[in-house]
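stage 2 :: seqdesign
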């Protein structure tokens, strides 16, 4: 990095964007829970991408580590992961965020309908968050990953495997992970069906 002051200023902006996004999401989700008497979220994790990870990403993409390249090429410097119980919750949360006036969605990647070749499954939203600094307002990009607990379990093991084998994953492990991803998708569907059935029975009982 050519100038550490530039990096500090970027970090300040990203930290402010993360705080703003966390606050806005928390308000939206609390409001949803209040109005629907239902909380679709299991847990939320957030982070600013580490320096090592951002350097790796830029180098892999063939870019030098400069402030301009970080801003233009790394879309997940600010990252939030929302983990929910059911598939339907994922889409509910996407809808809540899309309807928000403060968060602007500028790209969506539905890796649930179209999983990656690895088996990776999740819904990604690339958003802009307004950050109010002394000089005025600036829009900062952030990535929101939304997935079920089962998808999160898969992604966490996959992350460990990728780290362990430094990207050179043995074929049998790759195939096992692809099969696990399919099992997880089927499990998510079954759990959703059971939850829907339970809801119908509960609603019928309330009518009687
Ligand atoms: P980390 O450590 O989570 O930060 P882009 O990020 O947009 O430049 P790309 O590849 O188009 O590049 O973005 P994509 O695939 O939509 O999202 C990238 C992020 O999704 C990754 O960030 C991971 O968090 C997650 N991800 C994507 N594919 C996989 C996968 O096969 N396995 C796992 N476990 N996670 C995945 P980073 O920066 O790669 O990693």
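stage 2 :: out
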């Amino acid at each position: 990095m050519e100038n550490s002051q530039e990096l500090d200023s970027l970090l300040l902006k990203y930290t402010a964007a993360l705080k703003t996004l966390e606050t806005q999401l928390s308000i939206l989700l609390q409001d949803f829970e209040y109005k629907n008497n239902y909380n679709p979220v299991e847990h939320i994790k957030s982070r600013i991408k580490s320096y090592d990870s951002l350097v790796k990403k830029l180098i892999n993409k063939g870019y030098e580590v400069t402030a301009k390249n970080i801003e233009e090429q790394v879309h997940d410097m600010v990252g939030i992961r929302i983990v929910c119980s059911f598939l339907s919750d994922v889409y509910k949360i996407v809808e809540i965020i899309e309807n928000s006036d403060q968060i602007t969605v500028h790209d969506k990647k539905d890796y649930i309908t179209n999983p990656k070749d690895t088996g990776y499954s999740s819904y990604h939203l690339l958003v802009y968050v307004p950050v109010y600094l002394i000089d005025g307002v600036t829009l900062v990009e952030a990535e929101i990953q939304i997935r079920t607990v089962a998808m999160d379990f898969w992604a966490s093991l996959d992350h460990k495997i990728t780290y362990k084998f430094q990207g050179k994953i043995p074929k049998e492990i790759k195939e096992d992970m692809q099969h696990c991803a399919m099992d997880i998708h089927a499990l998510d569907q079954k759990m959703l069906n059971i939850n829907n059935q339970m809801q119908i029975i509960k609603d019928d009982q309330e009518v009687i």
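stage 3 :: structure notes
- The longest strand covers residues 136-148.
- The radius of gyration is 19 Å.
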